[in-house]
Amino acid sequence: MKRAVYPGSFDPITNGHVDIITRASRLVDELVVAVMVNPAKNHLFSLDERQEMIREVCGGLSNVTVSTFTGLLVHYLDEVDIPIIIKGLRAISDFESEFQMAALNTTLDRRVETLFMMTAVENAFLSSSMVRQIAKLQGPVTDMVPKVVNERLVEKFGAPKINSSKMNQPGGLK
Ligand code: PNS
Fold it and tell me: Whose CA is nearest to atom 6 of ligand 1?
């Protein structure tokens, strides 16, 4: 049975994460989305909220489960007996830190392999931190996150001040 862990903060889950989860779920028998618990970090969404949103969005993927981990990722991998990490790679800027983490994780536990998946082009510049910033400043994030996440962001920060119809569409300005 092929199993893999997709770790992250998911604060909140974006369309980029959903794309990786969906594609990765087709490659393995079980994919565990592991939400990092970091009490030192000031998250926008609580751990429960982050898990809830992932569960709601990934409900249709029967081989995807959602879990949490605290401390070192390699300790969690050992605990669940899954030595495979799946990561998404966006722009080249991700490469250095991801390369470092992959190398260190394998140094900490030589059984651990990190498999990278390229994000879809439309998500190449999407990140949870940018989504948080845009939503906080009342910009539209409708096309960047699943519907349920957009609703939670509107609850927190209010409706966007500009309409998403003003956003650039694939193919550019006409
Ligand atoms: O979504 P993020 O915040 O980019 O995810 C980063 C994450 C959670 C995958 C990474 O920070 C991590 O693995 N943290 C756990 C602590 C750990 O194992 N650190 C050593 C990695 S070399």
Answer: 8
